[in-house]
């Protein structure tokens, strides 16, 4: 109850960021948490986990094999194709796990939402990093920040479950109100959560994961698996967005790095979060995060147009309807522009 009362009485907002790995979740998270009214976990030095992702240091929900690939002989080519790949989880493929395993919702994990310790277990892990953030002199960050941010790519398949956790109606006696009248909305009709979905052009995102798996992890994942994982992950995100009581917002990496650019993208996000959008605040943030690479997709598009299209164009034809149904606003005919 102490956490429920603190969040509600102090009018705190919890922002959950999710989306595909290698889609820009980290760079956008860094920029958002530079806002004076927003707090994140800090860098890897402070949290001890890669990219300061909350999913890696909590025990309420799984990481779906991400970060555990080496323990599974990750990427042996003799088993990186076909149905077996879909049972493994891990980077670039976890969305293909059976839906009941990977797509956590309020309905399929409602037993956890009836237990008040679910909320306290999560916040007791995350709160010290918000509270001791160096932005606020390593003290009282929970009080000083209006928005608390947790970023993990896997939040994309956990959205409605996380909404249920952070808005859990814990009563003063420590029990959870499980009546039909209880919902994610508080007494004022609002939720404590907001959700930001990141995305990136499918060709660039798939190549970015492919390169990371090969070069940083020494592994291999079949291209079709990567494409199917991208599609399924976005299907879950779109499905959950419709089911949310909480406000949601989408950011495409290309909008942040290109046009309309980082300043306008951040202004839109900060307006969504109901924090200051003053030009001076945004300019200070951009100075702190440094130069934003203007076209991180360019090398991947060139690779696609010079060799990848010959190998894999049939896959984009095969899944064309699925990609279009996502309504992400991306054109798949990219080669005229990419080779100019």
Describe the structure.
By secondary structure, the chain is of the alpha/beta class. Helices cover 43% and strands 7% of the residues. The protein has a five-stranded parallel beta sheet with strand order 2-3-1-4-5, sandwiched between helices. Helix 8 packs across helix 13 and helix 11 packs across helix 12.
Lay out the secondary structure.
Blueprint: H1 2-9, E1 13-18, H2 25-32, E2 38-39, H3 44-47, H4 99-102, H5 116-131, H6 141-144, E3 147-151, H7 159-166, E4 193-199, H8 202-216, H9 223-243, E5 248-252, H10 253-257, H11 262-273, H12 279-289, H13 298-318, H14 320-325, H15 335-338
Parallel strand pairs: 1-3, 1-4, 2-3, 4-5
Helix pairs in contact: 8-9, 8-13, 11-12
Radius of gyration: 20 Å
Identify the strand order in the major beta sheet: 2-3-1-4-5
Helix content class: 40-55%
Listing every helix as H and every strand as E from the N terminus to the C terminus, the arrangement reads: HEHEHHHHEHEHHEHHHHHH
Total helices: the number is: 15
* Average pLDDT number: 90
Return residue spans where pLDDT drops below 50 for at least 5 consecutive residues.
78-84
Percentage of β-strand residues? 5-15%
């Amino acid at each position: 109850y102490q956490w429920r009362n603190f969040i509600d009485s102090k009018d705190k907002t919890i922002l959950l960021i999710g989306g595909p790995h290698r889609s820009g979740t980290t760079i956008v998270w860094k920029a958002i948490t530079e806002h004076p009214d927003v707090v994140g976990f800090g860098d890897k030095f402070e949290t001890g986990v890669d990219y300061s992702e909350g999913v890696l240091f909590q025990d309420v929900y799984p990481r779906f094999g991400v970060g555990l690939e080496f323990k599974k002989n990750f990427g042996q080519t003799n088993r990186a194709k076909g149905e077996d790949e879909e049972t493994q989880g891990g980077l670039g493929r976890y969305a293909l796990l059976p839906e009941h395993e990977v797509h956590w919702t309020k309905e399929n994990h409602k037993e956890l939402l009836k237990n008040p310790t679910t909320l306290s277990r999560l916040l007791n892990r995350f709160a010290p990093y918000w509270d001791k953030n160096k932005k606020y002199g390593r003290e009282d960050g929970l009080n000083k920040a209006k928005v608390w941010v947790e970023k993990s790519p896997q939040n994309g398949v956990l959205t409605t479950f996380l909404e249920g956790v952070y808005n859990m109606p814990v009563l003063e006696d420590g029990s959870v109100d499980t009546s039909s009248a209880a919902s994610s909305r508080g007494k004022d009709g609002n939720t404590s959560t907001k959700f930001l979905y990141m995305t990136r052009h499918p060709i660039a995102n798939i190549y970015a994961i492919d390169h990371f798996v090969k070069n940083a992890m020494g592994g291999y994942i079949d291209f079709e698996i990567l494409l199917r994982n991208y599609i399924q992950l976005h299907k879950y995100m779109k499905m959950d967005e419709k089911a949310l009581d909480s406000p949601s917002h989408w950011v495409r990496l290309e909008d942040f790095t290109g046009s309309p650019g980082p300043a306008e993208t951040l202004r839109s996000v900060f307006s969504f979060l109901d924090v200051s959008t003053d030009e001076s605040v945004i300019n200070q943030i951009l100075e702190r995060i440094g130069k934003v690479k203007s076209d991180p997709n360019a090398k991947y598009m060139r690779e696609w147009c010079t060799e990848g299209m010959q190998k894999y164009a049939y896959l984009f034809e095969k899944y064309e309807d699925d990609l279009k149904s996502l309504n992400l606003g991306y054109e798949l005919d990219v080669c005229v522009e990419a080779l100019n």
